[in-house]
Amino acid sequence: QGYRRVWAGLRGLKLAFYRRPQDHEPLELLDLGELVTVRAEDGVLILRLRGQEVTMKMESWETQEMWRGFILTMAKMKMPRDLALLPGHTFQLLQALREERECRDISVTAATPVVPSCFFQVTRAEAELLLERSAGRGNLLLRPGGHGQGVSVTTRQELDGTAVLKHYRVKREPQGYLIDLETPHRCSSLAEVAQFFVRRSEGSLRPLEPEYSSQL
Q: Which pTM does this prediction carry?
């Protein structure tokens, strides 16, 4: 009583609530930059922000603990010491923290490229698995190139019911990046590399969003 069944998605410091998992426009947004405390009490998670208090009820204790970990980690930029998570969940949380630190890095010099949110520190095999598991959040990501050389682009598309995975090499140049295609294409930034593939596919490719979500 008094609860609405919604989906929630965490994007950095924004906690968004959706009516359905495929929705793009949220019902409500919470700014975790205003977070004061998070506490688990009587089977619910209570978020106290400046000016309001939000109570979230999950389907299981494990999901509640996972959300408490993500919310505190994104708000404080460090992983809480008192979390009771399985090793796989702990790895997922640490990966999310690493990606968020990269997104928030404001000490970028002119010699260091700005890393877009669709860049993931994963191997080729991990990239394929990540795109498979993240269907609906995007089907294109950037990752470190093989043997530590440059950057690679991995895409995943469904064609006639079959998943088609492709990998593209992107070479670093003094003035930007060169996409290794039959007709090579130069870009000035990694973000432009991602957008090139979006335009080339006429929108069928979409950069993977670093969002961590579940049903509440």
A: 0.48
